[in-house]
Every structure is written in C-alpha cells, then in structure tokens.
Design goal:
By secondary structure, this protein is mainly α. It has 5 helices and 2 strands. A two-stranded antiparallel ribbon has the order 1-2.
C-alpha cells in the first residue's frame, strides 16, 4: 500500500527530472568546477602535508580522500592536516566546499521557482482566455490591455 501512495509524487518526480534536464548545463559546470577544486585541494594538501604525514598524504590520489571528506563537509577525522599551512588550507577548502555544494542546490531551487512561475502564468492565461475572450492581455505580466 505504501508503494501505491508514492504515485501521488510522480508529478513532482517528473517535474524534478524536467528541471534537471533543463538546467543540465549549469549543473554540469558546477560539478566540473567541484571536481577541479577537488584536484587543486588534493594537490596542494599533498605538497603541504606529505612530509609530515607520508602515510595519509603520500600521493595526490591518497590526498583526494581528505579533499572529498573536506569539500563535502563530512570531515570524518581519520585524516587531517597537522602543519599550520595545512590547517589554513584545510579551513579554506571546507569553506569553499560549503559554498560550492550549495551552488547546485541553488540552481535546482531556481529551476523549481521558474517552473512554478511558468505554470501559474499559463494557468492564469488559460483562465483569462476562457472568461474574457474579447480582451487582450500583456504576454509578460498577464494584465489586461486597453
């Protein structure tokens, strides 16, 4: 029965899929930037921390675990910088991670707002066309024109 109740959310899922396809370029750019930032942070952390912690920061791919945990703000605590420069860099990467992970959420939320505005405008236009066929309306705001 619970699976059948999910049917009422199918329209929302369809809208979500439509927004993802509509905003795919912006999302792709933001995710590409996140991957680029991951490589930059991991490379910098390798050069700053590999002498102090060769087991945890022994190579750039090993340093990527720290980069992923920091940029996603998970911060497991199993790997962390111990040098002063590494700590400053770690703090900056955590702040950048919060800022950049909120970017796709903003893009998707903007898409939902755009979609809702278009639906309201279309519904308003249909109601106006039904009730007042002899009036002309502004195509941008929907107000009656003289």
């Amino acid at each position: 029965m619970r699976v059948l109740k999910a049917v009422r959310y199918m329209r929302a899922l369809r809208d979500f899929g439509h927004i993802l396809t509509q905003k795919r370029e912006e999302l792709l750019i933001s995710f590409t930037f996140l991957i680029f930032l991951l490589f930059i942070v991991s490379t910098l952390m390798y050069f700053v921390e590999h002498e102090a912690q060769p087991d945890d920061f022994g190579s750039i791919p090993k340093s990527m675990w720290y980069g992923v945990a920091t940029l996603t703000t998970v911060g497991y605590g199993d790997v962390y910088p111990i040098t002063p420069i590494g700590r400053v860099l770690g703090g900056l990467s955590a702040i950048l991670g919060v800022a950049l992970f909120s970017l796709p959420a903003g893009i998707i939320a903007g898409g939902f707002a755009e979609n809702a505005g278009k639906k309201r405008f279309k519904e308003g236009k249909l109601a106006q066309a039904h009730n007042h066929k002899h009036y002309k309306y502004c195509p941008h705001c929907g107000e009656k024109l003289n």
